[in-house]
Design the sequence.
C-alpha cells in the first residue's frame, strides 16, 4: 500500500486516536490489521480508545503495519514514549451495573499490586454480598430505577460480579493495599446485622498474607483532604469516584503517580492496629440490632 499524505491531526491528539485515524483513512479493519501484525483486535481497540497505555514498540509495530511514512512512524513512537507525561483524558466507566464490574475487573486483573483508598464506603473488593447489594441498589438510581439496567435482576448480577472480583484477593502472587477512613465504619448503609457481618469480613480479609489493611482514625490530622476515593491498578490505571459514576484515567502513568503520592501520604497516618477499631464498631452494630429487636 502506498503512503498517503498525512491527514490533519487534532491538537493534543493521543497516540491511539492517531492510529485509529490512520487505520480508518486507509480503510483497514482492526481485525485485518491485527492479523497482519500478530495482535488481537481487542488489544488494538483498547489502544485506540485509550483504555490501555501505549507501548512505543507496539505503536511502532502498528504504524509500520499501516505502512505509514517513516517520519510518522517515528512521531507516533516518540509520542508513545512520552505519553506517561501527559494528562490527556479520563474515561467514564460503563453505567450498566454488571458491565461496570466486568470493566473494573479487566483493569484489576493484570495488576500485580492494587491500592485502594476509601473514605465513605467499604472498598468493593472487601464488600460482603449484603453490603454490596445495599450500595448497588443505591447506584441503580443513576441509570434509572425503571430501566433494565437498574432492575433488581441487574443488581443481583452486579453483586455476583463484584463478589467474583473479590476472589482476586486469594491470588497469593498479588498484593493488595487498603486504606480506609474510620468514617467508612460509621456510615450505616445497610442493616445493623449486615454492618456487623461486613466488619467481620474486613477482619477476616486482613489476615490474608497478601492483604494490607489500614484505618485512618477519626482524630487523625489529614495531610490531604479526602476529596474522593480511588483505586490504583498497578502503574497503569487509576479509578476515582464521582457522585453518579466513576472515571478511569486514560492518560497513563502521570495520573497514577499523582494518586500514588496521595495514597502514600494517607497510608502514613493510617494504623495497622485495626482490631480495637473493628471491635468497637462490631459491638455497636450488635447493640443496634438488639435494640431494634427489643
Sequence:
Amino acid at each position: 500500500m502506498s503512503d498517503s499524505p498525512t491527514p490533519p491531526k487534532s491538537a493534543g491528539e493521543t497516540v491511539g486516536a492517531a492510529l485509529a485515524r490512520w487505520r480508518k483513512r486507509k480503510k483497514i479493519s482492526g481485525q485485518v490489521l491485527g492479523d497482519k501484525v500478530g495482535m488481537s483486535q481487542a488489544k488494538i481497540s483498547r489502544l485506540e480508545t485509550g483504555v490501555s497505555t501505549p507501548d512505543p514498540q507496539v505503536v511502532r509495530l502498528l504504524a509500520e503495519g499501516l505502512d505509514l511514512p517513516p517520519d510518522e512512524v517515528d512521531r507516533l513512537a516518540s509520542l508513545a514514549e512520552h505519553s506517561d507525561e501527559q494528562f490527556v483524558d479520563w474515561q467514564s466507566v460503563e453505567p450498566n451495573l454488571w458491565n461496570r464490574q466486568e470493566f473494573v475487573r479487566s483493569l484489576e486483573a493484570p495488576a500485580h499490586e492494587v491500592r485502594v483508598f476509601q473514605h465513605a464506603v467499604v472498598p468493593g473488593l472487601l464488600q460482603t454480598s449484603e453490603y454490596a447489594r445495599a450500595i448497588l441498589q443505591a447506584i441503580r438510581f443513576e441509570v434509572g430505577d425503571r430501566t433494565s439496567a437498574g432492575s433488581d435482576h441487574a443488581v443481583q448480577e452486579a453483586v455476583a460480579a463484584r463478589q467474583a472480583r473479590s476472589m482476586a484477593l486469594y491470588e497469593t502472587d498479588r498484593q493488595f493495599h487498603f486504606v480506609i477512613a474510620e468514617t467508612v465504619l460509621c456510615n450505616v448503609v445497610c442493616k445493623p446485622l449486615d454492618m456487623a457481618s461486613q466488619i467481620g469480613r474486613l477482619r477476616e480479609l486482613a489476615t490474608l498474607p497478601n492483604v494490607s489493611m489500614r484505618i485512618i482514625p477519626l482524630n487523625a490530622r489529614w495531610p490531604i483532604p479526602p476529596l474522593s476515593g480511588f483505586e490504583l491498578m498497578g502503574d497503569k490505571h487509576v479509578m476515582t469516584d464521582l457522585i453518579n459514576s466513576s472515571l478511569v484515567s486514560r492518560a497513563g502513568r502521570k495520573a497514577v503517580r499523582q494518586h500514588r503520592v496521595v495514597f502514600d501520604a494517607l497510608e502514613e497516618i493510617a494504623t495497622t492496629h485495626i482490631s480495637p477499631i473493628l471491635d468497637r464498631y462490631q459491638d455497636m452494630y450488635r447493640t443496634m440490632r438488639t435494640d431494634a429487636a427489643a
Remarks:
- The radius of gyration is 22 Å.
- Residues 1-5, 143-150 have pLDDT under 50 and may be disordered.
